[in-house]
Sequence to fold (171 residues):
Amino acid sequence: MTRDPALQELLDKQAIAEVIQRYSRTLDWLDDEGQASCYWPEAAIDYAFFTGTAAEFVPVVMKIERSSQRRWHMLSSLAIRLHSPTRASTECYGQATGVRENDGVWTGNLFGGRYLDEFEKRGDEWRIIKRDYVMDWSMPLGVQNDGTPDPVFPLPVLRIVESGHPKYRAM
Fold:
């Protein structure tokens, strides 16, 4: 049975968007397998500080993420162009932060950039086959809360320092 082409295009775009969402989420929760599932293993990755395959990149990026006691990634303004039933290009903006404790002081950086991705569909699954990351800006954050809830406004602060945090849910 063949699907209506317009419906198939919407389904493909939604599947691609879910990969982008999974990318951010799995970095923040330190989910190595989830992060690897965003890429085909042989995908060409270029972040300037790293150039190689996705299989080589995932352990490197996860080590970097584990060096922060708190991290946060948000991607937005996703543009998707389908070239064929199995090829697509995407571009989206991203903001990320990492906060670390050094000698009792919590500091970090805020980064802004864009992800220029090529996607490939194999079977029913879309994954990144090529990624170029371009950093547009970065700025240091001031001294950050040490993670202790403020008694006046006691919101919980997650400390995700290893995989398997009890608040993490498979989605």
In short: The two ends are 29 Å apart (CA to CA). The chain has one domain: 5-141. The longest strand covers residues 105-122. The mean pLDDT is 93.
